[in-house]
Amino acid sequence: MKQVKKLACLFGMLIMPLLCASKSAEAAGNATMLPDSSIKVDYQYESIEVTGGKNTIIYYSENANASVWESVPVGADGKAVFDISWVKPGVTSRIYLKGDQDSLVTARYIEAEEKLSARFVGDISAADVVDVEEWKKVYSKYANFSSQTGYILFFTKRGGAETAFFDVNRIEWKKDSTGNWQPFDKLNIAHMNAKGVTLYFRIKAINDADTADGISGKRFSSEARLQIQKKAAAPSVTVNNAVMTLSIRNGMEYSLNNKDWNLVPVYSRTATTNLMSVPVVDFDILPLTNRRVNAISVPLVLDVDANAKIDKSLVTANPGKYKCQTAEDGTITGIYVYVRTAANERRSASAVREVLVPFAVADPNVARDIKLAYQATKTGTAGITLTNTATSVNYQFAVVDDPDNLTAEELSELKWSTIKAGKTVKVSSTKALTGSYLIFRVTAESKMELPSTYEKYPYPILYDKVTYAALSATSHYPGGVISVATSNNAISGDIKYVWQRSSTANGTYTDIASGTGYANSKYTITNDDVGYYIRVIVSNTSVTGEKAEVISRNSGKIARNPAVSPTPVPTPTPAP
Predict the structure, then answer these.
(1) Interatomic CA distance for residues 489 and 543, integer angstroms
(2) Cβ neighbours of residue 116 under 8 Å, at least 6 residues apart?
(3) Which of 40, 43, 42, 45 is nearest to 58 (CA)?
(4) Whether the Cβ atoms of residue 499 and residue 534 lie closer than 8 Å to each other
(5) Cα-flanking dihedrals φ and ψ of residue 331, to 5°?
(6) Among 80-89, 347-356, 533-542, whose mean pLDDT is lowest?
(7) Residue 96 · residue 84 · CB < 8 Å
């Protein structure tokens, strides 16, 4: 029996540790972790909320094997909340949690913040990015943004790769570092770039509670600082009345309604020549091209023919298209054109300049006011003389090859000269070339007017007309021959000669002989001419039907030849 007891005792000594070990294993197997669903990160306020369950204390640490853990009691609402603003934003971090009952460690990852950058562009189309069209779609939903204000493009970066961030609805902003964060749709850059301002942007945080799985929230992004420059001043633009142009530089744009803008193209300034070909732009403009200024013809800007008068009918035919200036009686006196410096990749459009383009003055009346005469010289080709017979109208004139097909650009490039009321000017034959035409327009008297539309002189400049009459004589006695020389260039048609005499040099002349052809270019003095002054009127009609007439100077007084004895008077025979 003792042997049995010894065996039983030995068996008991062997089994008890096993039983004790079994109980310890059971206890360890029953230890639990905090459920993921009970842990919610509030990224907006940078805290973690843990639903305690059966725990009365929640512990947390940055180290899973820490010897000392921070602790937060579970409140009466069954939740424990602790701050995580101390967690470094630039790296992915882990917070370890456990409870006094759920004693196994649970890890919660907090991703590193996204690196946000912001870039200002004045014009999306000019932006140096590959996703221009996508950005256009984004900003089509935001009326506060345009080329007038500029746009802001956002990018995030991870691992050195930059990615466009199109979800601008998640962007929030503040003015200066001390401002309050506001939603993106409240941003109005037009208010900001009036003076210039520094803006800060960030991507809004997403809390775990607001995600589909309840655990994939995101912290705020880094803050992107962006300096918004002050809007550029409106460009200086003037109406040049002398050549009917607006001086608009390359890179500017203009509009007739302050809404639809038309660009004056920018071309390379590294060109080797001063003149370049500039493409036609949307508003049917082919600008003049020099290295600095494009002179835009006013009629062309207003979409009318080169020589069409800009008047009320143009406006009334397009109601609502123009903003006009009117006089007190309601008469429309001018049209406004809007000009600004166009937006580019780095800046928004400038402030807008409103320019008044006045209407043209009254139409010219060349037939009534302008007289043309060919200058009388020995060559017959020295030029022409223009006389403005009007008493109060000043004219401008120019010499052109084809007056019927002048474009607006050609008009603006012409050299116009002034001929004031009642005045005469001489134009040399080196300027008034054979076959060219004269055009005239009424001069603008003030900056509130444009010159009139032009009118051509009906005949071309042709030196085929009688331009002078110079007398020469073999003698000034009876029997002497007086000859008249006219233009030595080709004269078209028959030349008519009308010889006249007068008892005084400046008296009234009467006709004594006339005819056409060479024979009539000479006159033989008779005894009846003694004591008289002789002159000749020479005239012809040009090939264009223009009549010309010149009067010679007088010959000097005709006298008897002293070398010739007077014919004796016969003595009368006495009556028988």
Answers:
(1) 14
(2) 154, 155, 156, 165, 201, 202, 203, 221, 222, 223, 224
(3) 40
(4) yes
(5) -65, 135
(6) 347-356
(7) no
Confidence of residue 240 (pLDDT cuts 50, 70, 90): low
pLDDT in tens, 470-492: 899 999 999 999 999 887 666 76
Give the pLDDT band (50/70/90) at residue 28: very low
DSSP 194-261: TT-EEEEEEEPPB-GGGSSSSS--B---PPEEEEEPPPPPPPP--EETTTTEEEEETTEEEESSSSS-
Distance from chain centroid for Cα 496:
61
For residue 352, give the H/E element and its range: none
pLDDT at 346: 78
d(CA 572, CA 567): 15
Q: Give me 564's structure tokens.
A: 């010739």
125: part of which helix (H) or strand (E)?
Answer: none
Average pLDDT over residues 403-427: 84
Tell me the CA distances in angstroms from 96 to 59, 62, 272, 512, one per residue in order: 8, 6, 71, 135
Compute the Cα dihedral for 262, 264, 267, 273 and give only its sign.
positive
CA 172 to chain centre: 35
Residue 458, C-beta contacts closer than 8 angstroms, at least 6 positions apart:
366, 367
Are 395 and 364 in contact, with CB atoms under 8 Å apart?
Answer: yes
Print the SS3 string covering 261-327: CEECCCCCCCCCCCCCCCCCECCCECCCCCCCEEEEEHHHHCCCCCCCCCCHHHHHCCCCCCCEEEC
Interatomic CA distance for residues 73 and 79, integer angstroms: 8
What residues pair up with 398 in beta bridges, in sequence order?
439
| Band of residue 201 on the pLDDT scale cut at 50, 70, 90 | very high
DSSP 62-92: S-TT-SS-EEEE--TTSEEEEE-TTS-TTS-
User: 293-297 and 262-263: which strand pairing?
Assistant: unpaired
Beta strand pairing call for 533-541 and 496-502:
antiparallel
How far, in Å, are 92, 470, 482, 529, 565 from residue 479 at the CA level? Answer: 129, 20, 10, 10, 14
Q: CA-to-CA distance for 259 and 11, rounded, in angstroms? A: 103
Distances (CA, A) of 273 to 278, 281, 559: 13, 22, 72
End-to-end CA distance of the chain: 236
Cα–Cα distance for residue pair 58/106, rounded to 1 Å: 11
Q: Are strands 252-255 and 262-263 parallel, antiparallel or unpaired?
A: antiparallel
Placement of tokens 């949307």 in the chain: 282
